[in-house]
Amino acid sequence: MPLGVYVTASDAAHWAGRPVGTIWRWASEGRIARTGTGKAARYLLSSVPKAERDEYTGELLQPADPPALPDGARAA
Fold first, then answer.
1. What CA–CA distance (Å, rounded) separates 17 from 63?
2. CB 69, CB 29: distance < 8 Å
3. Residue 67: what pLDDT?
4. What is the Cα–Cα distance from 42 to 7, expressed in whole angstroms?
């Protein structure tokens, strides 16, 4: 398991500016690192791309681009 900060799907979704379902899909496709399953699943924050947000208000300006698919993987 890679060392680093692991967060919930909700926190990862906020970080990426994407819906929670997108985080679940990215993890199932192998785009981002996950440990655990179900409600106990946590996502490696360094593997989740960061959204662009307003410096002062925190308002979402641009959602993060999807991470690359691993070699040999297929998108859902």
1. 5
2. yes
3. 93
4. 5
Are 19 and 9 within 8 A, CB to CB?
no
List, for residues 3-52, the tens digit of each pLDDT value: 789 999 999 999 999 999 999 999 999 999 999 998 899 999 999 999 99
**63 backbone dihedrals φ, ψ, rounded to 5°:** -65, 155
**In 3D, which of 72, 66, 76, 4 has the Cα closest to residue 31?**
66
* Gap between the Cα atoms of 4 and 74, Å rounded: 27
How many C-alpha atoms does 10 have within 13 Å on its Cβ side? 2
**DSSP notation for the chain:** ---S-EE-HHHHHHHHTS-HHHHHHHHHHTSS-EES-GGG-EEEGGGSPPPEE-TTT--EEEPPPPPPPPTT----
